[in-house]
């Protein structure tokens, strides 16, 4: 007979690893436990066994085999599934992490490795004083984007590690709650909107002393460009497949850093993931505006987004010559004074920043007749054998449709054709110097996209029709209150391109100390000689030379948003029933199927027409249903399908934001829309 005490014993030995700095304490400690012992009791027994008086509140158990945290301290070991073979590590939840910001500046700070990434990014943004943390996320740089740098320079250290900004002593980094005052709607400005330098009250965010002030200023100010040699060594995507590599490494917002294989002192990229910059306010968003500007600047320099030669020179004039010059100016570095604030208030009243993601514009209730446009425009229809048919017609734009007639007199009858622009792609085709003002419309039809080109006679006509087309593609009419601001934004961008209108004469290239190769992408460095580039950048600079620093950055962001490819994140996918791979472009309001070989859009699906979407986790397939019995399904080849699922849900979540509501985020709704059920 075996005694009941020997046979029925519920105790067993559990080997625990302790992650600490004390040399006189063993790394592995064995405890006798039972299955009904809760996790909190296990922590207490372990701390008593270690018997070292210190603050253990940040410690928790990490289960190495299952890659998960045991954070529910009231759960028993049996409920958690912990048995004798479990490898539990007693370690800190907050660990040091290196983050490379959009400005390519690397900061080192303490981050929660046990919180979901969504919460961790929120805490990081509080440390960096960046509002609207939901627009950002963490990106793990893929191996493909590092190959060129390693090949070119195997022995040198990575530039970002040479100059690291250490923010590990900030209150949030230390695990303390942040001061919510910085996020109050009624707060006074914490930054000088002109220079981006912090006001005195902001210093408490980083701590006391001059080092805190310097840290804060660095994040809000732009810095000189890197050398052309360094730029040439950085990864530059050449094809859509290359661009897809840039978006493969987004971390899962519903899981912790540790669960996704991130280790202490690892380096991640902090980037704006969602291109809907909501409530951008120069008074409070000096760091945020600068980081958006920097992300746009690097995207253009590294050719992550395509732009024309004319646009590249405008970007060079704004970002390089103007912003760099103002950022380095000793006058701008002076502390904020009342007169500067007054000037900024005046500038802000004149500069209406219209960015996607704001309140849905309300149609004026007292309008009974929807505005319309009527003009003679040229219609260009691409023909086979590379021939184009160009003919002038009388066009009428009403609601969200364009109708065209043989002439003005026949406008009372039936139109030759009526084009419904809702859900179409609108692409500018403009060359101000050549007086070319074209609008390319890609209108969804049953078997793909119908291409239509409209040619306008002048800037004013182009701005009115282009603004109407942009709004119509989103299902809005010209009665929408955003129509006039959209017209003004387009005219402003055209004016920047029209260098001949400027009365000032550009300085001679020989008299200016400038390295133009630092301000344009390598493609244009190869195309032009240095002196030619300098002359053209200086010529373009005349139209922006009177702007303040913050206005130049905002204009740069607006110009970036005007590019056809703005806001598109690319993934290589295989659609159900297809025998070849395609590229899927994910934007804030639509999905675009793109031919990988030609780069031409095939079909567009709007989020506004989407009924539901889900993922079959077994075969990793995303399925989406739209109105009118349209459904699509695809598998993602260049990244995990969870990334695309989160992108769609994230953009829908961001569309629910409103200035009228409290600025606290509905984190539960975000995870409901993006988390999925694996």
From TrEMBL:
<dbReference type="InterPro" id="IPR019749">
    <property type="entry name" value="Band_41_domain"/>
</dbReference>
<dbReference type="InterPro" id="IPR019747">
    <property type="entry name" value="FERM_CS"/>
</dbReference>
<dbReference type="GO" id="GO:0007229">
    <property type="term" value="P:integrin-mediated signaling pathway"/>
</dbReference>
<dbReference type="GO" id="GO:0005925">
    <property type="term" value="C:focal adhesion"/>
</dbReference>
<dbReference type="InterPro" id="IPR035963">
    <property type="entry name" value="FERM_2"/>
</dbReference>
<dbReference type="Pfam" id="PF00373">
    <property type="entry name" value="FERM_M"/>
</dbReference>
<keyword id="KW-0130">Cell adhesion</keyword>
<dbReference type="GO" id="GO:0007160">
    <property type="term" value="P:cell-matrix adhesion"/>
</dbReference>
<feature type="domain" description="PH">
    <location>
        <begin position="378"/>
        <end position="474"/>
    </location>
</feature>
<keyword id="KW-0966">Cell projection</keyword>
<dbReference type="InterPro" id="IPR001849">
    <property type="entry name" value="PH_domain"/>
</dbReference>
<dbReference type="Pfam" id="PF18124">
    <property type="entry name" value="Kindlin_2_N"/>
</dbReference>
<dbReference type="GO" id="GO:0005178">
    <property type="term" value="F:integrin binding"/>
</dbReference>
<dbReference type="InterPro" id="IPR037843">
    <property type="entry name" value="Kindlin/fermitin"/>
</dbReference>
<keyword id="KW-0965">Cell junction</keyword>
<protein>
    <submittedName>
        <fullName>FERM1 protein</fullName>
    </submittedName>
</protein>
<comment type="similarity">
    <text>Belongs to the kindlin family.</text>
</comment>
<dbReference type="InterPro" id="IPR037837">
    <property type="entry name" value="PH_Kindlin/fermitin"/>
</dbReference>
<dbReference type="InterPro" id="IPR011993">
    <property type="entry name" value="PH-like_dom_sf"/>
</dbReference>
<dbReference type="GO" id="GO:0042995">
    <property type="term" value="C:cell projection"/>
</dbReference>
<dbReference type="InterPro" id="IPR019748">
    <property type="entry name" value="FERM_central"/>
</dbReference>
<dbReference type="InterPro" id="IPR040790">
    <property type="entry name" value="Kindlin_2_N"/>
</dbReference>
């Amino acid at each position: 007979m075996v005694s009941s005490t020997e046979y029925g014993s519920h105790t067993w030995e559990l080997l625990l690893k302790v992650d600490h700095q004390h040399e006189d304490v063993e790394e592995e400690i064995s405890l006798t436990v039972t299955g009904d012992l809760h996790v909190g009791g296990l922590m207490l027994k372990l701390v008593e066994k270690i018997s070292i008086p210190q603050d253990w509140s940040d410690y928790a158990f990490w289960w190495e085999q299952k890659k998960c945290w045991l954070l529910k301290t009231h759960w028993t070991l049996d409920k958690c599934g912990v048995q004798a073979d479990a490898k539990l590590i007693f370690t800190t939840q907050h660990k040091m992490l290196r983050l490379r910001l959009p400005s390519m500046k690397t900061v080192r700070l303490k981050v929660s490795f046990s919180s979901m990434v969504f919460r961790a990014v929120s805490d990081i943004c509080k440390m960096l004083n960046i509002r609207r943390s939901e627009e950002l996320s963490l990106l793990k740089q893929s191996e493909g984007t590092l190959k060129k740098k390693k090949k070119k320079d195997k022995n040198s250290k990575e530039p970002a590690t040479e100059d690291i900004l250490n923010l590990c002593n900030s209150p949030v980094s230390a695990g303390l709650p942040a001061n919510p005052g910085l996020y109050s709607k009624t707060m006074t400005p914490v930054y000088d909107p002109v220079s981006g330098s912090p006001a005195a009250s902001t210093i408490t965010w980083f701590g006391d002393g001059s080092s805190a002030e310097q840290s804060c200023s660095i994040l809000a100010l732009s810095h000189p460009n890197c050398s052309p040699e360094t730029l040439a060594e950085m990864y530059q995507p050449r094809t859509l497949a290359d661009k897809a590599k840039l978006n493969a490494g987004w971390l899962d917002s519903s899981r912790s850093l540790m669960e996704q294989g991130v280790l202490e002192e690892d380096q991640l990229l902090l980037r704006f993931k969602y291109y809907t910059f909501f409530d951008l306010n120069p008074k409070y968003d000096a760091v945020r505006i600068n980081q958006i500007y920097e992300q746009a600047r690097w995207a253009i320099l590294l050719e992550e987004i395509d732009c024309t030669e004319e646009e590249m020179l405008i970007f060079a004039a704004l970002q390089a010559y103007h912003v760099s010059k103002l950022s380095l100016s000793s006058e701008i570095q002076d502390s904020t004074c009342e007169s500067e604030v007054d000037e900024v208030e005046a500038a802000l009243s004149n500069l209406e920043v219209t960015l996607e993601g704001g309140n849905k514009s309300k149609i004026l209730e007292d309008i009974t007749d929807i505005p319309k446009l009527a003009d003679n425009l040229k219609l260009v229809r691409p023909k086979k054998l590379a021939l184009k048919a160009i003919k002038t017609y009388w066009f009428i734009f009403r609601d969200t449709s364009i109708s065209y007639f043989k002439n003005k007199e026949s406008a009372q009858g039936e139109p030759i054709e009526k084009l419904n622009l809702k859900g179409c792609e609108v692409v500018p085709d403009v060359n101000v110097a050549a007086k070319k003002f074209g609008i390319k419309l890609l209108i969804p039809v049953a078997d793909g996209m119908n291409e239509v080109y409209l040619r306008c006679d002048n800037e004013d006509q182009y701005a009115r029709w282009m603004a109407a087309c942009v709004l119509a593609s989103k299902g809005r009419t010209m009665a929408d209150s955003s129509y006039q601001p959209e017209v003004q934004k387009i005219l402003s961008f055209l004016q920047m391109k029209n260098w001949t209108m400027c009365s000032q004469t550009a300085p001679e290239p020989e008299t200016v100390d400038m390295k133009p190769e630092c301000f344009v992408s390598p493609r244009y460095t190869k195309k032009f000689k240095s002196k030619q580039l300098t002359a053209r950048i200086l010529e373009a600079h005349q139209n922006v030379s009177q702007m303040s620093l913050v206005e130049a950055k905002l204009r740069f962001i607006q110009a970036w948003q005007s590019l056809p490819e703005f806001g598109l994140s690319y993934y290589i996918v295989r659609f159900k029933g297809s025998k070849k791979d395609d590229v899927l472009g994910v934007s804030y309001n639509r999905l675009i199927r793109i031919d990988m070989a030609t780069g031409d859009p095939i079909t567009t699906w709007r989020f506004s027409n989407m009924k539901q979407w889900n993922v079959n986790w077994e075969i990793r397939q995303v399925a989406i249903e739209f109105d009118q019995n349209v459904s699509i399904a695809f598998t993602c080849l260049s990244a995990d399908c969870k990334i695309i699922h989160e992108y769609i849900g994230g953009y829908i979540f961001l569309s629910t934001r409103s200035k009228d509501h409290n600025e606290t985020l509905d984190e539960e709704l975000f995870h409901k829309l993006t988390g999925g059920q694996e």
